[in-house]
Design goal:
By secondary structure, this protein is an alpha+beta fold. Helices cover 22% and strands 34% of the residues. The protein has a domain of 78 residues: mini-chromosome maintenance (MCM) complex, domain 2 (Sandwich), CATH 2.60.320. It has a four-stranded antiparallel sheet with strand order 2-1-7-6. A three-stranded antiparallel sheet has the order 3-4-5, with no helix packed on it. The chain is rod-shaped and about 80 Å long.
Length: 122
């Protein structure tokens, strides 16, 4: 006694496989939503999308702080401050994350709407 596979069975299997791949793409591969990087200096602001490829040099009271945006991340690349805490933060990419060089009056924050849902409560 063998198992007969009908055309309708193959269509159902292909549809389920397609939906599985589509769900995986939506969850893991698709780009983030409307996420922006806000860079603030003493008297100036820059706004870039998180997927930009940019280097921003921000002048401050101690010198120049370099902020780099690349690969859906942003980080402070160099700064004239003594402790380099802003550089130690590393790359940031999620909404609400930030880095600051307080001695040089530079603030970097990731703002916007992410498509990620961390949790749902009723």
């Amino acid at each position: 006694m063998g198992i007969k596979v009908k055309v309708f069975d193959i269509i159902i299997i292909l549809a389920v496989a397609g939906l599985t791949f589509f769900a995986a793409y939506m969850a893991y591969v698709k780009p983030q939503g409307n996420v922006q990087v806000l860079i603030q200096g003493q008297d100036v602001e820059w706004v870039y999308p998180i997927d930009a490829d940019a280097t921003v040099v921000v002048a401050g009271p101690m010198g120049e702080t370099t902020v780099r945006i690349c690969g859906n991340c942003v980080w402070v690349e160099s700064s004239p401050c003594d402790n380099h805490t802003c550089i130690a933060v590393g790359s940031i990419s999620k909404q609400g994350e930030w880095a600051a060089c307080l001695p040089n009056n530079v603030f970097v924050i990731v703002n916007g709407i992410e498509d990620d849902i961390d949790g749902i409560s009723w």
